[in-house]
Amino acid sequence: AFSVVSKLLSQRKLDLLDELVSAEVLQVLKEKISLLPDTHRDALAADIDAIMYTTEGDVRIYYDDDGRKFVSILMRFWYLNGANLPDEVPGETKVFQIVFGDESTKEKRHLLTANYEFQREFTEGAKPDWTITRIEHPRLLE
């Protein structure tokens, strides 16, 4: 889900996110994406093969005022991206120089982070669909 959503964000295909992302988050994304420079927008995309590490940041089970049961999972992702970002982009972990072929051909990759929160209602009879309720790409999508 992270890879698919991040690519759709990068491509500005926000209309395809209606079923995946909460309406509140989608509205904020529409405003932010329209203001991003192309290089930052390109850096949002995470190919599934470029995801280096994932970890859960927070897992919560809670009930709303009507007694409905929800589960929320915050996931953190570290991914490599070849967008043409300046070396001094704050918040990124490290810039890698990856060599393919001979020593004269170098491709710069940035190790970037993203936080996505997934929520699902677990009340009996509820649809078993997960919704993304938070999307953060630090220093790129602010």
From TrEMBL:
GO terms for molecular function: ribosome binding. GO terms for cellular component: mitochondrial inner membrane. One of its GO terms (biological process) is protein insertion into mitochondrial inner membrane from matrix. This is MAIP1 protein.
